[in-house]
Specification:
homodimer, about 300 residues, mainly alpha, Farnesyl Diphosphate Synthase, two-stranded antiparallel ribbon, globular
Amino acid sequence: MVDQNYENYLAIVNEHILDFLPEIDNKSITLYDSMKYSLMAGGKRLRPVLLLGACEMCGGDVNAAIPYACAIEYVHTYSLIHDDLPCMDDDDLRRGIATNHKVYGEDIATLAGDGLLNSAFEAMYRDMFLYFDDPDALKARVRAAYEIAKGAGCTGMIAGQVADVESEGKACSPEMLDYIHLNKTAALITAAVRAGAMLGNADKKMLDDLTDYAEAIGLAFQIQDDMLDVTGTVEELGKNVGMDKELSKTTYPAVHGMDASKARADELHELALDSIADYYDNAEFFINIVEALRNRRK
Amino acid sequence: MVDQNYENYLAIVNEHILDFLPEIDNKSITLYDSMKYSLMAGGKRLRPVLLLGACEMCGGDVNAAIPYACAIEYVHTYSLIHDDLPCMDDDDLRRGIATNHKVYGEDIATLAGDGLLNSAFEAMYRDMFLYFDDPDALKARVRAAYEIAKGAGCTGMIAGQVADVESEGKACSPEMLDYIHLNKTAALITAAVRAGAMLGNADKKMLDDLTDYAEAIGLAFQIQDDMLDVTGTVEELGKNVGMDKELSKTTYPAVHGMDASKARADELHELALDSIADYYDNAEFFINIVEALRNRRK
């Protein structure tokens, strides 16, 4: 399992995950219930945990980063609800329980997804109001919120989803495969780490190094998922390292073969560790994430 | 037609409507095209025009408000794309041309809607970076962006959409009908006016008065739409006053009768004019909007 810090961060996220939804009227109780259903449907909260870990490693106050951690989990959760819709991946089950639209219908599920994305931004704006007398802290929050928006958006996660949809059933070039993986999976993971670092007032070098780390583990995660789709043990890996099962239609082993996939994942894990080598005394959490990943592959 | 100012604001919005989308990679050209398709599909740009008008009336710089005007049109456009989906209203046509999903498929249309909502927030964050050396201007922008987020969200537009979906085929109480109209339609119109006023540094009284004005015209618009659904001329009204045709399943005349609907719309128009009576020398644009509405009904 991951180390103690991961569990501590996870506990914080789970304790507060519903706190930053808007105060929804009784007349919209179905909307609230449907958003809550997917927010409470399990998952290792990888992105918010990374955000809190990055904030703390950079010397920031973890408690002050909680709204942003929950906001990025709202974004991730909305993307899963919309991904599961019949017009997308058409999945009946996620993490072993019924998908949102199987419980609430496609119309409410679509709106619940929209509502979670919107709520992420509302939560971050509400937090910014608390820093109107502290210009530097306000600016750090605008920067962090923008990172999350960009990672989630049309030059990030959504770009990857569209490319994935469009690649379905077609031959996929290595270049397009990297584009899909980097955007669909790595962009929001990188945004989590960068937003946390910004909230912790990281200097430029630390921000750059953590960005390299995040891009490497984000891409390695997706390659591992792809490999384990082949070997059939993805469910177990997903449970242990916090990745959601994403049945990639366009997979790394399919394009590069298994041996090259393993070699690339190993290389990326090394790259991730190298990226944070200057902070080893203070980066146990990030080292352990890589080790947990590596060990899962044995 | 509406007055010259409306046309000027409309021209500004139309000129810049694509400027605030992220710089999308060639690999995501379908995503860009699908968002552009719906952004360019006509419509009177009521919300962005109101935002610019409110900013100018309060003494603000219209040019500096353009990113927020375009952002609120992105939000409105995403809501139409998702509303038209087969799992929602299942519309093949909007404003006389094929809906987004009829052209691009349901998967891309869902993602294009998500992309437009996300892009609205990205656009506003990018604008905020320009004001990092001007704390008061930065705070005004955070406030304006939050107004748009709140109006669009789970205590605004999305709440109204969920209540509308849930009321379908059921008896609807007058209270629930008001809830649907106030949230589904009036909330984003009110957010447009309030965000514009905030960008123009309105004082509290002016902001309150413009809020009253916007809530009144937002509700009146929806009641008129409902009445014209009955009389069958909604298409023409929609074209002239800038409202999109929303075939309400739960309508004001159905609950209150035609006479009471007319009386309520008249009352709301008077209320709107009363709300801005203190600014008559400076509120020609807002007076003309009400007059245009009133005349359409004769």
